[in-house]
Amino acid sequence: MAIALIVVGAIVLVPLVLFTLLVAGIRLQIRPILNAIRRFNHAVTNPRIMATAGTTASSPAIIRHTGGRSGHAYETPVEVFDAADGTVVILLPYGQTADWVRNVTAHGGAELLRAGEHLGLTNPRVVPTAGVRSQLPAKELRMLRLFNVPECLQLTRT
Description:
Strand content: 25-35%
Strand order of the largest sheet: 2-1-5-6-7-4-3
CATH class: Mainly Beta
Helix content: 40-55%
Mean pLDDT: 89
Largest sheet: 7 strands, antiparallel
Number of helices: 5
Shape: globular
Distance between the termini: 65 Å
Structural class: alpha+beta
Order of helices and strands: HHEEEEHEEHHE
Radius of gyration: 18 Å
Number of domains: 1
């Protein structure tokens, strides 16, 4: 009986602790936790998302950008939202230091593949989420309340 309680406790507690670390890491922008999440997503989550990203079967889009030092072409899955002023907004849960964000801002834009459509994006600027909050869907507002994402990348469609 005691072993069963320990096993059940571990099954419940481990995911709860991991979820709490995830939320706290993003809310408080704790760099080691953000880096661990980023590495996990890069190795595990992103390859799975990339299988359908950018197609009509999936909501994630693909942002195509060029590496700052390497000059290599990269593709990163992102969630993109249309803003009322003709721009697009991408939430930055890892902050503006993510490689793809630095690449896009350094090169002054990127290409976006969303629902089978190619869009050119220019004029990247990191803006406070509070400034674009009213332009985001309700689902994202719930996520923002949970994770308190402080910044977004706003780009102009070309």
